[in-house]
């Protein structure tokens, strides 16, 4: 139920935000699905490829760009890692 509330709040927030694309929406929804599969923890720890697979996004460049923008726009808090053997942290606000 909490994920549905977050998704609903996200859609309300982006209603008039022209910066948000379908790719941003796909990533946000994928993050919520990933979170649900892990017991609704906050923050989630994820490799980019895990979220890309759920969101059906092939390009790592697109994924990282959209994640950075979602962070900059205030929709989530993203702590990327440069170490490929460590997961990034994503906090839902």
Structural commentary:
The chain is of the alpha+beta class and 93 residues long. It has a single domain (2-13, 21-92), classed as Arc Repressor Mutant, subunit A (Orthogonal Bundle). Helices cover 53% and strands 13% of the residues. It is built from four helices and three strands. Strands 1-3-2 form a three-stranded antiparallel beta sheet. Strand 2 (76-79) and strand 3 (88-92) form a beta hairpin. Helix 2 (22-36) crosses helix 3 (48-55) and helix 2 (22-36) crosses helix 4 (60-72). The radius of gyration is 12 Å and the shape is globular.
What's the quick description here?
With 93 residues, this protein is α+β, with helices and mostly antiparallel strands. The protein has helices spanning 2-14, 22-36, 48-55, 60-72; strands at residues 44-46, 76-79, 88-92. It has a single domain, classed as Orthogonal Bundle (Arc Repressor Mutant, subunit A).
Number of domains: 1
Strand order of the largest sheet: 1-3-2
- Major beta-sheet overview: 3 strands, antiparallel
Strand content: 5-15%
What is the 3D shape?
Answer: globular
* N→C terminal distance: 16 Å
User: Pairing-aware structural class of the strands and helices?
Assistant: alpha+beta
What is the CATH architecture annotation?
Orthogonal Bundle
Order of helices and strands: HHEHHEE
What is the helix content? Answer: 40-55%
Question: What name does the CATH topology carry?
Answer: Arc Repressor Mutant, subunit A
CATH class bucket: Mainly Alpha
Protein name: Helix-turn-helix domain-containing protein
Organism: Flavobacterium pectinovorum
